[in-house]
Design a protein that fits this description.
single chain; 566 residues; alpha/beta; Growth Hormone, Chain: A; Rossmann fold; 2 domains; seven-stranded mixed β-sheet; four-stranded antiparallel β-sheet; 18 helices; 13 strands
């Protein structure tokens, strides 16, 4: 083989290695960005602040990495050096499940009650790996462009591979990994993928370190907790769904469903039809306004507490329910005594707005229960949505909307904006607070209709006493649960598809959260085994990381010889 052929073969071999590094880095950076959302959203909500922080920090880190990587690449570019950097990023990512919870707790303690808290948490978790992964593109271009006249072709080729890697990482994480694998395992996998790809340019010692890392991770792979969520009671089931982190928690006789850390349903296992969460009793307001209702729709399933209760108490009714998350429906069937084969119950696994826009059926009562204290599906609270709801109502139909906030005070903007928007479509609207004080953050029921219903509290109280469901007798006995004040809507926006600042209005980070039951009970963290084991594993990984950093600095960073040219 001639010298020219040898050089050509060496160059082609290096190009394949550069492509592997580039593709893997592109895939991991997007996968890491997406999977980190599953760490942040249970604490900060799936809001514009959370997603804006994720996108902004990663882009900022990559930009800084491009700049610094270009400067480093001009000073003794070595394939071993960029492989060592990628190996370091892999080690950092592998460690995220060990320190994610303390980082989030730290940011909440240091910077509580602002929309910038998720930005700080995201910065601490993702800035360093984003910067270091940003080194890859300029560095591999420097290594690959051995002649000036081909630099355009080489850079275009490698940037295309990086982009393809990012696309692959996005689709793989969204459609394959999150629906099937635990968050910590996905993060470990991303870190190991970087470490494995970097070994093509490293000597034997890093390979030994990589084996040690894998051995440490193999011991607790399925049980290391990564989430920052705490629950009351014993965790009996959890799953990453396409929409949220789903937990089923058992506390005494109660079984509760949590989505992204917020409780959405609870059931008394000894009395499955009992309404454990007080606000669900207010769903029966719809039957007081329209006692002849037979066709009823629930938007939002959760544990299907409301539909089950209505089926039992009102034997002439037929219930439809729309739930967007198929895993939530399956969990309700397994843990909440939901009978999907009940001939009077029809469940649609669909987005509520999409379904109501295409499913031409009218209802006597529609219960909107898809809003939460840390997330509001903005497309379900605009004028256009309520117009769609109105089209699905019979002439005497009633809408019962459950929204979280206050009627008066600093936390009332969302409730008042929703009330203002609904009044445009439903002239008749009544407000029923579930707590005594109007300034408290609470579940608030807005009962709306086009029919000119005229009720006062005492009339409704008499109707409640004669209703099959006597839940509301105690509630309507108090004046505080029938709001008679004038709702000031002059300073809140009218919500439309074009303008809907719902995240700012509800401000799930700065507002007081809804006070859930059992708050004074002992909180048991969602952990599967002894903390000492997790501590030992974390210490072991720290030691291995320390060994690597010493080796990297002495044998790679300070070296001026590229092993790929040897």
């Amino acid at each position: 083989m001639t010298t020219v052929q040898s050089i050509s073969k060496l160059y082609q071999d290096r190009m394949w290695k550069l492509r592997i590094i580039t593709f893997t880095a592109g895939a991991v950076v997007m996968g890491l960005e997406i999977i980190t959302s599953r760490i942040l959203t249970p604490v900060f909500g799936s809001t514009i602040y959370t997603w804006g922080s994720l996108i902004g920090v990663v882009l900022s880190g990559l930009s800084l990495g491009y700049f610094l990587g270009g400067k480093v690449a001009d000073d003794h570019p070595q394939f071993e050096k960029i492989c060592g950097i990628v190996f370091s990023v892999g080690l950092f990512i592998v460690g995220i499940p060990f320190f994610a919870s303390p980082v989030v707790d730290f940011t909440v303690a240091v910077l509580p009650g602002t929309q910038y808290t998720p930005l700080v948490a995201t910065f601490l978790l993702l800035m360093l790996p984003s910067v270091l992964l940003g080194f890859v593109s300029p560095y591999v271009i420097k290594l690959g462009a051995n002649t000036l006249h081909k630099v355009g072709n080489i850079s275009g080729n490698l940037y295309a591979i990086a982009t393809i890697g990012s696309i692959f990482g996005t689709f793989l994480t969204v459609f394959v990994l999150i629906p099937n694998i635990a968050v910590n395992q996905i993060i470990f996998g991303l870190g190991i993928a970087l470490i494995a790809s970097s070994l093509i340019g490293l000597k034997a010692s890093p390979k030994t370190i990589a084996v040690a890392v894998v051995m440490i991770l193999m011991l607790p792979l399925s049980s290391l907790p990564v989430n920052t969520i705490s629950h009351n009671g014993k965790l009996i089931y959890e799953k990453e769904t396409p929409f949220s982190h789903l937990d089923i928690v058992e506390y005494g006789n109660n079984v509760s469903m949590y989505l992204d850390g917020m409780r959405h349903s609870s059931m008394n296992s000894k009395d499955p039809l009992d309404l454990v969460i007080d606000y669900t009793e207010y769903f029966h307001l719809g039957m007081l306004f329209n006692p002849e209702a037979t066709n009823i729709l629930f938007v939002g399933g959760g544990g299907f507490t409301g539909p089950k209760n209505f089926l039992e108490l009102y034997p002439d009714t037929k219930i439809d329910a729309i739930e967007i998350d198929a895993d939530v429906i399956n969990a309700a069937e397994t843990f909440f005594s939901l009978e999907k084969n009940d001939p009077r119950l029809q469940i649609f696994n669909d987005d509520a707005r999409k379904h109501l826009s295409t499913f031409e059926k009218k209802y006597d009562l529609i219960v909107l229960d898809a809003y939460a204290s840390n997330y509001v599906p903005y497309h379900l609270m605009t004028q256009e949505f309520f117009q769609t709801v109105e089209k699905r109502l019979e002439p005497d139909g009633v809408v019962v909307s459950n929204v979280i906030g206050s009627i008066e005070g600093n936390n009332s903007q969302l409730v008042r904006a929703m009330y203002k928007t609904m009044k445009e479509t439903f002239p008749v609207s009544y407000i029923f607070p579930t707590e005594d004080r109007t300034t408290n953050v609470q579940n608030i029921m807005i009962v709306s209709s086009n029919k000119p219903y005229e009720f006062d509290r005492l009339t409704l109280l008499d109707m409640a006493k004669n209703s099959p469901a006597d839940y509301l007798v105690d509630e309507l006995s108090k004046q505080a649960h029938f709001y008679q004040g004038i709702v000031d809507t002059s300073d809140v926006p009218f919500l439309t598809d074009q303008y809907n600042p719902s995240e700012v209005l509800i401000n799930p980070i700065t507002s007081k959260t809804y006070v859930q039951e059992f708050q004074d009970e002992k909180i048991e963290k969602k952990e599967h085994r002894d903390d000492s084991v997790n501590l030992g594993l974390g210490v072991g990984l720290t030691v291995v990381t320390g060994v690597w950093l010493v080796y990297f600095k002495k044998r790679i960073w300070n070296s001026e010889t590229d092993i790929s040219t040897n």
